[in-house]
Amino acid sequence: MARMTEKFGMAAAPAAAFALLAAAIAALALSIPAPARAAQGRTVPDRTLGVVYADGRQTENVPLYRLEKPSEELFISAFDLARIFRATRYWNPGTRKLILRIDEDRFLFTLDTRVVLVNNEPILMRIPVRYTDGLVMIPLEFISGILSARTGGKIDLDETRLVMTIGSPQYNVTGIEFMDEENGSRALISLTDELLYHADSETPGLLRLKIYGGRLNALKISATRCKGLFNRVRAEQAEHDSYLFFDVQRSASRFRVEFVDGDRDAGREGQLVIFLEKGDLPEIPEADYAGRKMTEIIEEDSRRPGFDLRKIAIDAGHGGVDNGKIGDSGILEKDVNLEIAYLLKTSFEDEFGVEVVMTRSGDELIPLGRRAEIANSAGADIFISIHCNGWFHPDAGGFETFFLAQGRSEYDDRLAREENASLKFENPDLKPGELEDLDFILWDMVQNEFINESSALAELVQRELSEEIPIRNRGVKQAGFMVLKGLKMPAILVEVAFLSNPEEEELLQDRSFKAGVVEGIVEAVRKFRGTRSGASSNER
Amino acid sequence: MRKTGIGRKIIFILLVVAIVAVMGVLISRWVRLREEKPPAEVQSVPEGTRSATLFFASRQADGMLSETREIAVGYDIENQIKAVLAALIEGPRSGGMVSAIPAGTKVLQVFWVEETQILYIDFNAVLVSNHPGGSTGEYYTISMIMKTIASNFPQVRQLQFLVEGYPVETIAGHYDVNKPLDIMTWK
Question: Which of A88, A352, A398, B70 could form a disulfide with A474 if both were Cys (CB 3.0 to 4.6 A apart)?
Answer without folding.
Answer: A398
